[in-house]
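Justification of resources, computational component.

The compute hours requested in this renewal are based largely on the per-chain cost of generating structure records like the one below. Each record pairs the submitted sequence with a full structure-token output. That output is archived, and it is also reused by downstream analysis tasks.
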Amino acid sequence: LGSGLMATAGGLVFYGADEGFVAADASNGKRLWQFSTNQSWRAGPMTYAVDGNQYIAVAGGSNIFAFSLR
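The structure output for this chain reads:
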């Protein structure tokens, strides 16, 4: 891992890896989703909510990526 990871109450784990930003099942580690980038991960992901919608944000390279958990 190039950064920290974050686990959610819904049983998901998010982290930055060499292949991109990954969502995995916390119970078995199986990758559920991956967003490929050419970024180095600067920090662990964080979560926030806007108008009742939850998001994950992570800094990669000189960018900040945000993903909706819907």
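The longest strand covers residues 53-60. The radius of gyration is 11 Å.
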